[in-house]
Amino acid sequence: MKRVPLAPWLRKRLPAAGEVERVRRTLSRAGLRTVCQSAHCPNIFECFARGTAAFLILGPNCTRGCRFCAVPRGVPAPVDGDEPVRVAEAVRRLRLEYAVVTSVARDDLADGGAEQFARTVEEVRQRAGARVEVLTPDFAGRRAAVAQVVAAGPDVYNHNLETVPRLYGTVRPGASYQRSLRLLERVKALAPEMVTKSGLLVGLGETRAEVRSTLADLRRVGCEVLTLGQYLAPSTRHLPVARFVPPEEFEEMAEEARALGFRAVSAGPFVRSSQGAAELFAGLPARVAVPGS
Questions:
Q1: Residues in the chain with pLDDT < 70?
Q2: Complete DSSP assignment for 188-222
Q3: What does the H/E/C string look like for 157-181?
């Protein structure tokens, strides 16, 4: 596929370095990683400048090889038993009121890493008193793993679909569209009041009709919060961008999502699932009924 030249609306000015360096030093001293760094997020400087970060637990290497993602595939690291405490202490030192915790996929673990998620949520609550959003992998469909994370009581349970079902074999080999939908549905069945969230990257070759259908699927399983962002290829080894979606089209998709009943939507070329998570959560309006309920 021919590579598309970068669109002019995808250029941004970098913020001052002071707060960025403070966050980097705090993470480095604690021996922690962020998805901002590992996934080459385009918003890393803005998020670090605001003193925020999305913590990446369970090691640097993923057991899968999604073709859109910069997180490396490799031999998984042993589970670090002290990691939940270090994350909590970093949240406290950074004075965060809202922390996002995500991970690589760990298909090598019997629970997919669910216990580490649960312990991290609990430690952050106890040591830092912060709200917590988890962004989990699909745990290879393990229902008990989802239940363990839900039982820890995160404020938001996020699991990204990433793309439309037709593109899963190309974009997310090893993942399953229906499995991901079932995970979000399971969270709502276990904890109806827990906020569920998901996100899509566009520009991978999907059609607008496919996006609409995917958003309808998310609403059918009770998903309430949505992020829509532009796919940006991390390197020449990753999937090329099929199209750069203009800002006005993001606005149209956001309006369509709100019309379907999503309580909060963030959409734009640079939007990512962890970006502005605290603000998105704080701005949630009252719940609406799930279609068909």
A1: 1-4, 12-20, 34-52, 287-293
A2: HHH-TTSEEEEEEEE-SS--HHHHHHHHHHHHHTT
A3: EECCCECCHHHHHHHCCCCCHHHHH
Q: Do 105 and 142 form a contact (C-beta atoms < 8 A)?
A: no
Class of CATH domain 12-282: alpha beta
- Using a CB cutoff of 8 Å and minimum separation of 24, what contacts does 244-252 make? 244/4, 244/6, 244/7, 244/9, 244/10, 244/203, 244/269, 245/202, 245/203, 245/269, 246/7, 246/9, 247/9
Q: What is the DSSP string of 8-61?
A: GGG------SHHHHHHHHHHHHTT-EEHHHHTT-TTHHHHHHTT--EEEES-S-
Model confidence pLDDT, tens digit, residues 14-55: 555 555 677 777 777 877 876 555 445 555 556 555 556 789
